[in-house]
Design goal:
GO terms for molecular function: dipeptidyl-peptidase activity; metal ion binding. This protein is α+β, with helices and mostly antiparallel strands.
Amino acid sequence: MAAPVPEVEYLDVLTKTGQKTGVRKPRGDVHRDGDYHRAVNVWIYSESTHELLLQKRADCKDSWPGQWDISSAGHISAGESSLVTARRELHEELGVELPKDAFELLFVFLRECVINDGTFINNEFNDVYLVTTVSPIPLEAFALQETEVSAVKYISCEEYKSLLAKADPGYVPYDINGEYGQFFDAIAQRYKKNVEERSLSLQRQFNRYAPIQLGADLTELGDSDLEALKLILKAAVIIDAIFHEQVWVSNPALRDWLKGHADKSDLHRLKWNYYGINKSPWSCLDDHEPFLTTADSAIKLHPNATKPVPGWKGLEYKAAFPSVRPPGANFYPADMDKMEFELWKNNLTEGERQVATGFFSVIKRHSENSLHATGNSGSNYTLAPSYDLYYVPYSQEYSSYLTEASELLQTASELTSSPSLKRLLQTKATAFLSNDYYDSDIAWMELDSKLDITIGPYETYEDMLFGYKATFEAFIGVRDDDATAKLKLFGDHLLVLEQNLPMNDAFKSKEVAAAPIRVIQLLYNAGDVKGPQTVAFNLPNDDRIVKDRGTSMVMLKNVSEAKFKHILLPIAKACISREQQQLVDFDSFFTHTICHECCHGIGPHSIVLPNGEKSTVRLELQELYSALEEAKADIVGLWALNFFVSQGLLPQSLSKSMYVSFLAGCFRSVRFGLEEAHGKGQALQFNWLFEKEAFVMHSDGRFSVDFDKVKDAVESLSREILTIQATGNKSAASSLQEKYCELSDPLVIALDKLEGLKVPVDIAPSFTVAEKILHGQS
């Protein structure tokens, strides 16, 4: 009887920069021809003993037989993903089965070498993963794959590094002075900081936020509305839980762990406090650099990860997160790239594509559901399609959360005395379960209630991969009727602004709906409200509604007042020329914020591309959209202020103060970091206006506005951005951001001065009134 023919493993052939070519070849041919391909390295690290697990490669291996090597490694088969491969290889080779939150992607490195007398050419991109266990796994718990592994052992990091440095022939060689040195550095750095050093660092980061208390006068609310408010606040707490899950797969476990250990020490308290501001391990004000590592994360017990061992309770591991913030957050598989998404999307029907690229779905892998998924097989040198992805509606993905939130809002709707609030709560409750938010967004726009509620999935800043997916958020406030009445001017003149925008008339919309503006005193917020606090928002983002009905704006007046007092005035005192400091005032700051939000509702949204195809600005600009849209709203908002003044609709007293207040605001927003859409957009504007000499830096490091040049500079940038949006020109958007979205020397001078003076970067609100209501104290 003939021996069974072994299954041929196919690999994706990559370019020298690691991109898929669309070609796949048998593994043997790849190494014969020296084709670039991808593999995974998985390391198991014991935290308590500072040891690494090594495996001894089987003698039958075609590369480095009989030598000690990485805990587990393997090629990524054609059509397969990195993380699924890492999980599968660890299971197949060592008998260790772990969920995806145990795997931390450290880095990717390229290994280029030739062995076996030139017959084995290895040009391999390696995705390096770390699994951190609390203590060593008993050796008898492993189930070794004999064709791959002959033995395993633990070895201290320092000893292993020393053996590699000496090129010990018993160990597979790695250049610890090259890229692979990152591995040992990453482990060493996360455990070397002492408690005092870390505490001081976290305290400095935390001190950049000025703590304030926010509340609102509830005396005009009736008893039934107060009862409804309590239920709405409870729904907002649920919304917060959803957002934590949207950020990263292990983020909820990290949150619960830090909260549960906050009383253990001052350091633990600081970790929890600063996490509470950022709602993730990545610092919003530091371009999302991590302030925590997996070493700080939750300990999870997986009793069935390996073979059982008498007297051993099972494998305990640290819930992992990468040091680099994942651009796709938890909306997409962590190892998915844009090409894979586009290949899959192009095989969908038009309706399916709309869901896949829409606001309210997450993207997942079929192969994540099984460790035994195999790569694509087929004929030699063919294109490899990708069908591993699928979408899940939010209503299904977050079903347990949304069902509870829906019930709370439905009950609240039965209590409130306001007809428009009743309709909003009812339609939102329905939307949470149906995943169709159109009617609830219309109801939100038509809200006319003392109690002002915004709750649901809206902004897409967290999706840095495409800018498609919306995060959940909640803003609960009490309407300021007097301030709201004063702002009717802005919403009523949007069509006039649209008709006069500095761009080609062919791009202008003939119909722009008036934008209702509501001013509120913020009582509570939740969900995607991390880091720097918003002072206003303009919703909805659904292009269908924007086209047909326009948008509505909500201004958070007490937040604006707090920022002006604690942030903008100290900035002006430090960075604005003494002659112009008195021109920085709250009216200019607040009025520009209004115009900023108005200008989200005008300009290009639904567009016609040069080839005649209909699209939207968001779809065409993808990950570049958010920063450019924020820059557009800012700079066109400044243009709009001047337009209103020139038409006699706003007082002449704003004609200079609006520009100087805007200049001070540039320094405020850039401090949010250039990884954040508002900060990036503000850097673009400042650098453009500085280049046009509209902003001037003096010998003492202070800045002023050249009133003779600023109007033309503002108009030229407005025209540039509006034209890019109207044509859906992603290449032009990229060029503009590459040139101007940087920390230029003048910005660095200003930011260093503010840092030295310890001017707060933003506010950290607490909501004592809302907390009392939630806990039944009122």
